[in-house]
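Example for tutorial group B:
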C-alpha cells in the first residue's frame, strides 16, 4: 500500500517536521477520533439524518485534511456536497450509502498506511 495513494506526501512531510515529537500524538488522536466518528456516520445514515451525516462528513473532511489524508478528505467532501441543501425525502439513500462505504474503505486504507509507515 503506497502512502502517496492516500496522503499528500509533500504536505505530510512538512507537517511531520513542524509537529516534530507531537506528530505521533496527532496521528493517534486522528485514528481514535475517526474510529468513534464512523459509527456515528453509519448511524446517521440508518436514521436518514441528513444534517447529522452532513455535519459529520464536514468535520471528518477537515480532520482528514489536517493530517494530509487527501483521498479521505475528498471522499468526505463528496458526501458533504451530495447532502448539501437536501431534506431526507430528497436524498438517494442508496447513493449516500455508497459514498459512506467509500469513506469507510478509505479510512481502513489510511489506518493501514499509518500502521505501516508511522508506528
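The residue assignment follows.
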Amino acid at each position: 500500500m503506497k502512502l502517496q495513494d492516500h496522503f499528500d506526501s509533500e504536505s505530510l512531510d512538512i507537517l511531520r517536521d513542524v509537529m516534530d515529537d507531537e506528530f505521533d500524538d496527532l496521528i493517534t488522536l486522528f485514528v481514535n477520533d475517526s474510529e468513534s466518528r464512523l459509527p456515528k456516520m453509519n448511524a446517521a445514515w440508518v436514521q436518514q439524518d441528513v444534517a447529522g451525516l452532513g455535519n459529520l462528513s464536514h468535520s471528518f473532511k477537515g480532520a482528514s485534511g489536517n493530517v494530509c489524508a487527501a483521498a479521505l478528505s475528498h471522499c468526505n467532501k463528496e458526501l458533504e456536497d451530495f447532502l448539501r441543501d437536501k431534506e431526507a425525502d430528497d436524498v438517494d439513500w442508496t447513493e449516500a450509502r455508497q459514498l459512506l462505504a467509500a469513506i469507510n474503505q478509505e479510512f481502513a486504507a489510511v489506518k493501514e498506511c499509518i500502521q505501516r509507515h508511522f508506528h
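The first helix runs from residue 9 to 19. Compare this with the pattern of hydrophobic and polar residues in the output above.
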